[in-house]
Amino acid sequence: MNIKEFKPYIFSGDIKDAVSPPFDTITQEQENKLRSAKCNITALSMPQSWSNGITPRKIMEKWIKDKLIYEYGENVIIILKQVFYINKEAVARYGIISLVDINNNISTHENTFSKQVMERQTVMDDLQAQPEPIFIVIPDNNFDKMIKRYTANLEEKFKFEEPSGVENFVYFLDDQHKIDRIKESLANVQGIVADGHHRTQAIKNLQKEKGDSFWNYALAYTTSIYGNGLMIGGVDRLVYRLNFEANVAKIKNLFDVYTEKTMEEDNNIRIYSRGIFYIIIPKEYTIRETFGTAKPLSTEIINRILFENAFGLEKSEIETKVSYIYNATDAINAVDRHECEFAILIPSWQKDDFLNLTMENRIFPQKSTYFYPKIPSGIAVYRRPS
Predict the structure, then answer these.
(1) CA–CA separation, 6 and 4 (whole Å)
(2) Gap between the Cα atoms of 135 and 377, Å rounded
(3) Distance from CA of residue 17 to its chain's centroid?
(4) DSSP state string for 187-248
(5) Residue of higher predicted confidence among 381 and 89
(6) Residue 138: which of 213, 184, 191, 177 has the closest Cα?
(7) Taking Cα atoms as reference points, which of 2, 180, 151, 176 lies closest to residue 75?
(8) 20 to 30 Å CA-CA from 198: which of 16, 245, 259, 276?
(9) Domains along the chain?
(10) How far apart are CA 384 and CA 386, in angstroms?
(11) How many CB atoms are located within 10 Å of the residue 253 CB?
């Protein structure tokens, strides 16, 4: 990986009013609350209307004029420490926000939706800026130890707590010797895009179209995949306009199906419908006929066997009948509130399985992984130098 320091644009007011969850994880209720703030990053990352001429660029230019956001005076690498609890035990994760050369030792592992890529491309092209970082993981055991060590003597720039309970502590590293040491430590390391595939592709498109060096780099957060402060969940599916129970007979031709009243934690795919959890395990012959000798991912089983074979859906139909949600409890509640027909609950990942597949250059279906805790948007913006 090739990284470099930069002069970030940062908010001058209370950081709690400026930050938000990543744009693609925000609920409608969260969005309404965030938009009510005087100066929140969602106004740039999730523009409401272009027809009235209030574009993200004009909003940011007004914020700069009103000194609500300003360019920091020095080149820095931003260190982010996140503290949260797992089973009542505090866990700290360290990472950096910097610029990353997206053409140098950076790999992706998920397909993208062209519509979402174009949305991100349009926003960033108008802004001439990147309002939120992509999320990169690296297979390096020593990286977080180095960053933790460099944090020890730094003054805290600001801190804030997310509604989820994650505490964020932000530090600016301007010591060029230490910055160079970080660069050297990453020079031969393979970076894997964990979150932000649509933004990554949008930046690559802009790089190709515009042909200037600004788009050679992505604003990115980088952390070690090995730390106990990094989890990889599955992305659950909400399904609309399809009746699960009416298709159980077809599904049982392809899957072994078991029912349970409460959900257990294991590696099985589950369907939740009408208060019942259905464990679905594809039959051996189904796997063999669909994938040959390859070991399929949970999301490949869902797309190829459940949606295409059992329900008879075309790929284009899947996009219109499925939405994505990042918490099993929220998925279950959506079914109970009759907001969708049923939910598909995807098991979490083992890190070694993820690494092995990405190192094989395996490309996953869209929305196969959910890395968390997420990186809040609004800590810093990377803007084209004026």
Answers:
(1) 7
(2) 11
(3) 21
(4) TTPPEEEEE-HHHHHHHHHHHHHH-SGGGGEEEEEEEETTSTT-EEEPPEEEE-S--TGGGH
(5) 381
(6) 191
(7) 176
(8) 16
(9) 3-232+372-383 (3.90.1530.10), 235-347 (3.30.1760)
(10) 6
(11) 11
Task: Find the helix packing angle between 143-151 and 176-186, rounded to 10°.
Answer: 170
Matching residue, tokens 């907001």: 339
* pTM of the complete model: 0.89
Mean pLDDT of 262-287: 94
Distance CA 239, CA 245 (A): 13
**Rg of the chain, C-alpha, whole Å:** 22
DSSP code at position 136 = E
1 alpha-carbon distance from chain centroid: 20
pLDDT of residue 234: 93
Where residue 51 falls among pLDDT bands split at 50, 70, 90? low
Instruction: Report the C-alpha gap between 22 and 154 in whole angstroms.
Output: 27
3-state class (DSSP) for residue 237:
strand
Q: What is the DSSP letter of 171?
A: E
Give the pLDDT confidence score for residue 264 in this predicted structure: 82
Is beta strand 217-224 parallel, antiparallel or unpaired with respect to 134-138?
Answer: parallel
Amino acid identity at 13? G
CA angle 61, 67, 71 (to 5 degrees): 75
